[in-house]
Structures are given as structure tokens and as C-alpha cells.
């Protein structure tokens, strides 16, 4: 279990390092006002952040998911693993979906405040477009770090402020984890030969496709989650009363396209994130679990379970 934990943490960190810039782009595209756009699309948002805030701007809020990795992986391992142990048919798609959904539901209580801090850190400073102003006046810093963000949210609204967006996080992660686990198992059954060990390229490709599939299914909910967590971050009056109010007002102002804002950057992010996570997790297990083995037997249920969990914990 210690090897699994270490592999999960290191693989997750690698995934965050690779995928966080596109996550920042996703959040900014999701939350921008369509009537007063700052960004025309993924590439324009990416180049604008680098131009105005340097490359450091792409990694705003990254410490929040990094710190939360241990807790998230522990929860996912515990919930998903124990459910699969008592399942009468652990390889069935239904069991995979239900176990993944349960893991997503429970870990949402840790993920929600972590993502609130990440989202608000990613958004601060983006409204400073005065190119003629001195560089020290362009980025107005509201939060010093994720902890400072959570403390200010608690001071302003109590625990309700820290857990703003919890309902939408649950609605996103429960089905999202379920779709990922069942989708991964289904795709592996389609493309791999049960008599041989799948190649690393097969693992990366299947993991990436499963991640993209889960994001497509849950993406509209993620848009609403981001908007709720960003709402009122600068001390202004809140726009949205609750989840449904956010849906109605967003649709009324921007139509159906509002629910796919930033999807391109999310899909682009899924593949490199999965690739980095899978590679690191696989090599850590090989080095720490049994250094004499040159190949990881991914047909071993324990190893398959581990690889599934680590990628999902960081990409969904």
C-alpha cells in the first residue's frame, strides 16, 4: 500500500505540472463574460496570460491541488478499492461505474475547497489589461496563496464560503469518476489482448480517451462549478444564488454555448496529463515494488486498479 501511495502522489504531481496551464486557461474561459470577452479562444487566452503575467501566470493556484493530492488519493484508494473487494463481479462495467461514482462522491468533500482556492488563484490578476500602466500595478493580488484564499472565504461566509460549489462538485465527480473507470475498462477490453501485457502506448491512449470521454459527459457541470466558486471573489455582490440559478442566468445571457466554454483546452490537457501520470506511476511501481521486474504486469488486478485510480484522481 505504501508503494501505491507514493506512486499515486508522484504520478499525480507529474500530471498537475503538465496539465495545470491548460486548466488555468479552462477556468478563465469558463468564467469570462460573453458580452465583454477578454479571450477569443484557447490559444489567445494562453498567449495573453503569458504576455501579461509571464509563464508564472499559467501556474497560479497549482499549490492547491499539489497539497490536496495525498488526501484525494487516500480517499480514492480506500473507497474504490474496498468496494471492488466486496464486489461479486469486479470486472463488470456496472461495478466499475458504481465504485468510481462512490469514490468521486466521497472525495468531493476534499476537492471542493481545494478547487475553490485553485479557481480563485487562477482568476486573480486577469482584469489588469492596462498595458500603459507600470508592471507592478497590472496584477491586483487578492489572495497571497491558497490558504489565504480559504481563510478569507471563511472570514466572509464561514464554512459555507469554503464549500461554495460543493453540490456542483459532487454532480461532476460522482458520474465523472464512474464514466472514467467503466470507460477505461471497456476500452481496454476492446484494444488489448488478455493473453499479453498491453504496451505503454496502449495504456496512455486508453487512459487519454477515457479521460476525454468523462470530461465531455460532465463538462457543463464543471462550467457551473467554476462560475459558482469564482462568484463574489473580489468582494462584489454575488450574481448567483445557487446551482440552478447559475444555470438559468448563464443560459439566458449566453445561450447553450456557455456550457462548452473552455472544452477545447480541457481536451488538449487530458492527453499530456494522462501521459505524464501513467508514465510516472508505472515507473515508480516498477522501481519500488519489485526492482528486478523490467515490466509491469498490468494484467494483475492490483496494478490495473492502481493505474486507473491515479489517472482519474488527477484528471477528472
Which class do the helix and strand fractions yield? mainly alpha
Report the biggest beta sheet as strand number plus sense, adding barrel if it closes.
none
**SSE string, helices as H and strands as E:** HHHHHHHHHHH
Strand portion: under 5%
- Count every helix, treating DSSP H or I runs of 4 or more residues as helices: 11
Strand element count = 0
Summarize the amount of helix as a percent range.
Answer: over 70%
Distance between the termini: 23 Å
Radius of gyration: 20 Å
The pLDDT mean sits at 80
Contiguous uncertain segments of 5+ residues: 129-138, 291-302, 304-316
What is the approximate shape? globular
Family: Belongs to the mitochondrial carrier (TC 2.A.29) family.
Membrane topology: Multi-pass membrane protein
Transmembrane segments: 201-221
GO molecular function, one term: high-affinity L-arginine transmembrane transporter activity
Structural description of this entry:
- With 316 residues, this protein is mainly alpha-helical.
- It is built from eleven helices and no strands.
- The protein has helices at residues 2-31, 42-53, 63-86, 93-123, 146-157, 159-162, 166-191, 200-230, 243-254, 263-289, 301-315.
- Helix 1 (2-31) packs antiparallel against helix 10 (263-289).
- It is found in: Mitochondrion inner membrane.
- The chain crosses the membrane at residues 201-221.
- Keywords: Amino-acid transport, Membrane, Mitochondrion, Mitochondrion inner membrane, Repeat, Transmembrane, Transmembrane helix, Transport.
- Its main location: mitochondrion.
- It is a multi-pass membrane protein.
Amino acid at each position: 500500500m505504501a508503494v501505491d501511495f507514493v506512486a499515486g502522489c508522484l504520478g499525480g504531481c507529474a500530471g498537475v505540472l503538465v496539465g495545470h496551464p491548460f486548466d488555468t486557461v479552462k477556468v478563465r474561459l469558463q468564467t469570462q463574460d460573453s458580452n465583454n470577452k477578454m479571450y477569443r479562444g484557447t490559444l489567445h487566452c494562453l498567449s495573453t496570460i503569458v504576455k501579461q503575467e509571464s509563464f508564472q501566470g499559467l501556474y497560479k493556484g497549482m499549490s492547491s491541488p499539489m497539497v490536496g493530492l495525498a488526501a484525494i488519493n487516500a480517499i480514492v484508494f480506500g473507497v474504490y478499492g474496498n468496494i471492488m473487494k466486496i464486489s461479486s463481479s469486479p470486472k463488470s462495467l456496472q461495478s466499475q461505474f458504481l465504485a468510481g461514482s462512490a469514490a468521486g462522491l466521497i472525495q468531493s468533500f476534499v476537492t471542493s475547497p481545494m478547487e475553490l482556492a485553485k479557481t480563485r488563484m487562477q482568476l486573480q490578476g486577469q482584469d489588469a489589461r492596462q498595458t500603459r500602466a507600470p508592471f507592478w500595478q497590472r496584477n491586483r493580488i487578492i489572495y497571497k496563496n491558497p490558504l489565504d484564499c480559504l481563510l478569507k472565504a471563511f472570514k466572509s461566509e464561514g464554512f459555507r464560503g469554503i464549500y461554495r460549489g460543493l453540490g456542483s462538485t459532487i454532480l461532476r465527480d460522482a458520474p465523472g469518476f464512474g464514466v472514467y473507470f467503466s470507460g477505461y475498462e471497456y476500452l481496454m477490453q476492446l484494444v488489448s489482448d488478455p493473453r499479453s501485457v498491453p504496451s505503454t502506448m496502449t495504456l496512455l491512449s486508453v487512459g487519454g480517451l477515457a479521460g476525454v470521454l468523462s470530461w465531455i459527459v460532465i463538462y457543463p457541470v464543471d462550467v457551473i462549478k467554476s462560475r459558482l466558486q469564482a462568484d463574489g471573489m473580489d468582494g462584489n455582490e454575488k450574481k448567483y444564488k445557487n446551482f440552478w440559478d447559475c444555470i438559468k442566468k448563464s443560459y439566458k445571457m449566453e445561450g447553450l454555448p456557455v456550457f462548452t466554454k473552455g472544452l477545447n483546452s480541457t481536451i488538449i490537457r487530458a492527453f499530456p496529463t494522462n501521459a505524464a501520470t501513467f508514465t510516472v506511476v508505472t515507473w515508480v511501481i516498477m522501481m519500488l515494488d519489485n526492482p528486478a521486474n523490467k515490466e509491469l504486469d498490468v494484467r494483475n488486478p492490483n496494478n490495473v486498479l492502481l493505474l486507473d485510480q491515479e489517472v482519474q484522481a488527477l484528471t477528472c
